[in-house]
Amino acid sequence: MEKGTILIVDDNKGVLASLELLLETEFSEIKTAGNPNQIISILNTSPIDVIILDMNFSAGINNGNEGLYWLKRIREIAPTLPVVMLTAYGDVELAVKALKNEATDFLLKPWDNQTLVHKIKEAFGNGKKNKVPSPILGHKPQMIVGQSPAMQQLMKMVIKVARTDANILITGENGTGKEMLAREIHHLSPRRKQEMVTVNMGAISESLFESELFGHERGAFTDAYESRPGKFEAASGSTLFMDEIGNLPLGMQAKLLTALQNRNITRIGSNKVIPVDIRLISATNLNIQERIESGRFREDLLYRLNTIHLELPPLRERGDDILLFIDYFIRRYANKYGRKDIFLHENALEKLRSYHWPGNIRELQHSIEKAIILCEGNVIRPKDIFVKQTWSPQLSTVVPNLEEVERQAIETAIRQNDGNLTATAEQLGISRQTLYNKIKRFKL
């Protein structure tokens, strides 16, 4: 029987020790936190099934407002997670207030052991009904899932299909985390013991396509000084992730289709047919159906790619999931740049939450990193948050053509990243090779 993981949050070490001892046989893992500031980080990195949360943390204060504040924060990112409130100063009015703020239950100190265990187990049982299950014991997610309905529904589908070898097509805007979702699927699959192999289809030139995917023998062409397996061979027994599949030219699409149909490949310079056993996951930010209708993508290839189609929602449609990403990126870059104890001013948080994030998670990540670097002291303020300024036709009587808009966008991005082309490509959501091609095309 699944026992789950419980998080106990209380500033009293004696209470933490007592509850840990009392509940150690009832749960698979018990996590404790003496400071409520640890809650969001723990929820972001560990699967928690139940929280026991004290209502008072500061000496001399017993109105329960601290606990209610943290209950609200928990509910913003985990609406269905069972939270049982605990206080030594409980009364009926405070209990009702906690329950109105969506606490699961309420317990008083000193507690009755039997009653406490019963209520916690009951909360855990009810919480399981709303939780997305993980089929792997001890599985650590490869991505931040959050609690938005769209992502919860998506992950239910992911868990179902991950166990199979069905080919999957992931679609979504730039920066929504398509590769991270592919890694999550791989790590939930029977193929997880081997590394997932990735290839950016948009960065492969037509002349190198067969060599990159199918491999070559020594002397097969100029500079082929030694034999080398391609991505298909490298991924045999594992998962092959093809990013930017929608950018693949028609000629290459035919060769890819043949390999997928036959489930074997032949290296350049060889006649030996090599069988391959891969699970294929593809991704694109393009509308494949439109490309099929315009003759730029093969419909028969699409049928091979999208046995299962998963659509990743943009960040603006994920509600308060953005709080998880903000917290994660602040901790990540504060640690990277040695900026300890960084805090986010409430006005800066509001600026982050109100922006529409056309670049999605990747754009948020870059904005947080810049804010960590540029903020004065240990507080990130609104002035430290840099977001793109949207061009508005009302501000100009001249409407530039699409190529001019694209050229200006690339120029601006290069300036913003101080000439760093890798960072520029990431910001624009294109491959480095695609960026090189556009720089050459626009003579930048």
TrEMBL record:
Question: Protein name, please?
Answer: Sigma-54-dependent Fis family transcriptional regulator
Q: Which CDD domains match?
A: AAA
Q: Which residues carry this modification: 4-aspartylphosphate?
A: D54
Q: Which GO terms describe its molecular function?
A: ATP binding; sequence-specific DNA binding
Keywords on record: ATP-binding, Nucleotide-binding, Phosphoprotein, Transcription, Transcription regulation
Superkingdom to which the source organism belongs: Bacteria
Q: Name one process (GO BP) from the record.
A: regulation of DNA-templated transcription
Q: Name the InterPro entries on file.
A: AAA+_ATPase, AAA_lid_NorR, CheY-like_superfamily, Homeodomain-like_sf, HTH_Fis, P-loop_NTPase, Sig_transdc_resp-reg_receiver, Sigma_54_int
Please report the stretch or stretches of sequence annotated as the Sigma-54 factor interaction domain. Answer: 144-373
Determine if Transcription regulation is one of this entry's keywords.
yes
Classification of source organism: Bacteria, Pseudomonadati, Bacteroidota, Bacteroidia, Bacteroidales
Keyword Magnesium on entry: no
> Where does the Response regulatory domain start and stop, copy by copy?
5-124
